[in-house]
Write a structure and sequence with these properties.
This is U2 small nuclear RNA auxiliary factor 1. Keywords: Metal-binding, Repeat, RNA-binding, Zinc, Zinc-finger. By secondary structure, this protein is of the alpha+beta class. The chain has a single domain, classed as RRM (RNA recognition motif) domain (Alpha-Beta Plaits, 2-Layer Sandwich), CATH 3.30.70.330. It has seven helices and six strands.
Length: 155
């Protein structure tokens, strides 16, 4: 079962990065409640990438059902996670409104997220620093209401 889930996770993660941009974090809900079951949350490094993903994904289908994607105000997924579930002690079951995250294998986590830490030498790091610096500058120049939108999307 874990192997099938890892394959699904890797396929979605890889497609998100290839089509839309760098994924900082991706989470899949394992909740039983109708409003959270199977939800996939993707946090992109750049807000523009999240907006592009939402526009495109709302025209797609998965498992014979339309995908409903939207931008989310959540900036830190850890704040939305159920601490009791993480310790194996959540008693609310299907009524819990906090995210019960389905974990991926350690190997897949290293493969998907670990490749970023290696980098491609100092040139890629300096390009990344310049990009972050430019993003911060744009952020300061952006009107307040635009800043309130988050770069993560719910798919």
């Amino acid at each position: 079962m874990q192997e099938h889930y890892d394959e699904f996770f890797e396929e979605v993660f890889t497609e998100m990065e290839e089509k839309y941009g760098e994924v900082e974090e991706m989470n899949v809900c394992d909740n039983l409640g109708d409003h959270l079951v199977g939800n996939v949350y993707v946090k992109f490094r750049r807000e523009e990438d999240a907006e592009k993903a939402v526009m495109d994904l709302n025209n797609r289908w998965f498992n014979a059902q339309p995908i409903h994607a939207e931008l989310s105000p959540v900036t830190d997924f850890r704040e939305a996670c159920c601490r009791q579930y993480e310790m194996g002690e959540c008693t609310r079951g299907g009524f819990c409104n906090f995210m019960h995250l389905k974990p991926i294998s350690r190997e897949l986590r290293r493969e998907l997220y670990g490749r970023r830490k290696k980098g491609n030498g100092s040139e890629s790091r300096s390009r990344e620093r310049r990009s972050r610096s430019r993003d911060r500058r744009r952020e300061r120049e952006r009107p307040r209401r635009s800043r309130d939108r988050e770069r993560s999307g719910r798919f």
